[in-house]
Amino acid sequence: MLEIFVDADACPVKAEIARVADRHGLHVHVVSNGGMRPSAHPHFRHVTVEAGADAADDWIAGRIQPFDIAVTADVALASRCLERKASVLGPSGKLFTEESIGLALGMRDLHRHLREATGQQTLHSGFTKQDRSRFLGALETEIQSIKRRAAGDSTGMLRQAQHEE
pLDDT digits over 75-116, tens only? Predict the structure, then answer.
């Protein structure tokens, strides 16, 4: 069965994920290094990992499966999830794909190099209502796409049957 894995420490769309999880009856793994107040939401499973730069990423990448969705702004984690044949959405609704991840990784490295060379921080634009709306639409679209693909895939059917037992 389709599950959602959230890289939660800096995720601005947890409320939107909860709404969609309710609508589809999906389980959501909210993974963080701590400091987050757990939600009583029945579809949310809060996972607090050990301190460490990549501990949450490692937990997600080690468990995510095909027909699952990762929600992250972390390009390196997105790449790891794509390698496991999962879908990956950024909080602004951007769908990471095999075709786009190389450019995203290159841009991440370029920005890191520029920060190191200039000593200046890279500024990101603020998170807007349009970003939230775009994320909701992209999440809904990806869930529907995965359900169609899983229906035609015996692995997806087997996983769903195992989950229901």
Answer: 889 999 999 999 999 998 989 887 676 665 566 566 676 667
Instruction: Quote the distance between the C-alpha of residue 67 and its chain's center.
Output: 12
- Domains, the chain, in order of start with CATH, read 3-164 (3.40.50)
pLDDT digits (tens, 9 = 90+) for 13-71: 999 999 999 999 999 999 998 766 667 777 888 898 987 778 999 999 999 999 999 99
22-61: string of b/e by CB count within 10 Å (b at 16+)? Answer: eebebbbbbbbeeeeeeeebebbebbbbeeeeebbbbbbb
Kindly list the distances between the CA atom of residue 17 and the CA atoms of 2, 7, 87, 91, 158, in Å, as whole numbers in the listed order.
Answer: 13, 12, 15, 10, 25
